[in-house]
UniProtKB/TrEMBL annotation:
Protein family: Belongs to the FGGY kinase family.
Keyword tags: Carbohydrate metabolism, Kinase, Transferase, Xylose metabolism
Kinase recorded as keyword: yes
Full protein name: FGGY-family carbohydrate kinase
Domain Carbohydrate kinase FGGY C-terminal, first and last residues per copy: 260-440
Residue intervals of the Carbohydrate kinase FGGY N-terminal domain: 9-248
Length: 495
């Protein structure tokens, strides 16, 4: 008997440390997944870049691996990627240089000051939704124009990882509204369109892409892309978006009052609000769905610190270190960490911040250090939540997603520190699953509630909250007490 392939959708996300693909049935059940690891280049202090050829090569490898068994037929594709990133191409759409990555790349401080002087810091927040920071794409473009003027003179188009994949898959030059809203100050978040006067000021000569919403079709797969990926020509491809927003969609965290916590290499927070809100310490953006607005935050490191510790402690893995951290207990036996190992984004907004580990003695163990890193993320989340609410946010539900939700310890620590329950959905594999959901919605009538119901709710443990109240007060004091010292050290690191 002839067995017909099962219809499926594919989602691919280009992340900081890996590209991940997932094949999902139209019922929401994951069929298989695949990963390709990579490492950004670091050409200088505070600089993080990536060759875009990695993105397309890994997409084609993932597509072929996911479909190799031949038991599925892909009917739509969704994409996302880290961002906002800046990839500039020439008149032939050839990349001119490696892409400058999002807020982990802190090179654009001088450009931020200049743009603020020209356009006005308060007016940038009002129209652009966010204060200029090293997260924003606009100053990164200005850095290239300042430091590499001959190269910039040849620049014609702006891409991010998701739009680069879309361009290779469909031949179309488009970007989603949410990604555009992180191109501060090029995008008007009040009008939801590019703001031509500021675009001409900050990114002269760049043909900015037409805008669509992440779930809209960007086009269909070309014959050339079909040959390179093994996917069927003519299937629809979503416009896509930045990874954290795809993750929020994957767990249904897009309703007013929702807060998504993304446990990954970095920690990301997205709060959905009924109307535009702004804060000098957060990012005000348009959402992933038409008509939605967000107040968002992001820590420069979270999983990156635990990965660093794993690599330092040769011969151990995250499972073993998590077991040791659980044995360490709340407070990590008197250790306190500032997780600013790559500077810090919100709400500190300090690219020259650095990591601090306070209270070390000769008796402290690997488990204590790992526990302190997990707790540092929790303290950073609480700090962001307090600033979100001070800006007018109203957090009614917290939904967790990402690799860090796989074990219970990290999410439990964050709930204990913040005093807030967290919903964990059945599938928490991340942005690729959200990409697949948007792809499925191009061809079928599906909802996230059908695809991905709630699996558990992590509730705060009252026995730990008192200890964490004391430690959180110390955490908030530690940065201002050490900032002048770490700033001086950061300057030495740049020599």
């Amino acid at each position: 008997m002839l067995v017909m392939p099962r219809d499926a959708v594919m989602g691919v996300d280009i992340g900081t440390s890996s590209s991940k693909g997932v094949l999902v049935g139209l019922d929401g059940a994951p069929i298989r997944s695949a990963v390709r690891e990579h490492t950004p280049t670091r050409p200088g202090p505070g600089r993080f870049e990536m060759d875009p050829s990695v993105w397309w090569r890994e997409f084609t490898e993932l597509a072929r691996e996911l479909t190799a068994p031949g038991d599925t037929g892909v009917v739509a594709v969704g994409v996302s990627g880290m961002g906002p990133c800046v990839l500039l191409t020439d008149e032939h759409d050839a990349p001119l240089r490696p892409a400058v990555l999002y807020g982990v790349d802190t090179r654009s401080v001088r450009q931020i000051r200049r743009i603020e002087e020209r356009l006005g810091a308060e007016e940038i927040i009002r129209r652009g939704g966010s204060a200029l920071s090293t997260q924003a794409a606009g100053p990164k473009i200005a850095w290239i124009a300042d430091e590499e003027p001959e190269l910039y003179a040849r620049a014609r188009r702006l891409y991010m990882p998701s739009s680069w994949l879309v361009g290779n898959l469909t031949g179309n030059y488009v970007l989603d509204h949410h990604s555009a809203s992180q191109c501060t100050p090029l995008y008007d978040t009040l009008a939801c369109e590019w703001y031509a006067p500021w675009a001409a000021e900050v990114a002269p000569g760049i043909e900015l892409p037409p805008l669509r919403w992440p779930g809209e079709a960007a086009g269909t797969l070309t014959a050339r892309a079909a040959r390179e990926t093994g996917l069927p020509a003519g299937i629809p491809v979503t416009t896509g978006t930045i990874d954290a927003w795809a993750e929020a969609l994957s767990v249904g965290a897009q309703n007013t009052g929702d807060l998504m916590l993304m446990y990954g290499t970095t920690m990301f927070l997205i709060h959905t609000v009924p109307e535009p809100l702004t804060s000098p310490s957060l990012w005000g953006t348009v959402g992933a769905l038409p008509g939605t607005r967000n107040l968002a935050g992001g820590m420069a490191t979270s999983g990156a610190v635990t990965n660093w510790l794993r690599d330092l402690f040769t011969g151990t893995d995250h499972t073993e270190l998590t077991r040791l951290a659980a044995e360490s207990g709340p407070g990590a036996n008197g250790l306190l960490m500032l997780p600013y190992f790559s500077g810090e984004r919100t709400p500190v907004m300090d690219p020259d911040a650095r990591g601090v580990i306070a209270g070390l003695t000769l008796s402290h163990t690997r488990g204590d250090l790992y526990r302190a890193a997990l707790e540092a993320t929790g303290f950073g989340v609480r700090h962001n939540i307090e600033v979100i609410e001070a800006a007018g946010g109203d957090i009614r539900r917290v939904v967790a997603v990402g690799g860090g939700t796989q074990g219970s310890l990290w999410t439990q620590i964050v709930s204990d520190i913040t005093g807030r329950p967290q919903e964990v959905r059945t599938t928490t594999i991340g942005a690729g699953y959200g990409d697949a959901l948007l792809a499925a919605q191009l061809v079928a009538d599906v909802t996230v509630e059908d695809w991905n119901p709630v699996r558990e709710v992590v509730t705060p443990d009252a026995q730990n909250t008192g200890r964490y109240e004391e430690l959180y007060a110390l955490y908030r004091r530690l940065y201002p007490q050490t900032s002048s010292t770490v700033h001086a050290l950061a300057a030495l690191q740049e020599r």
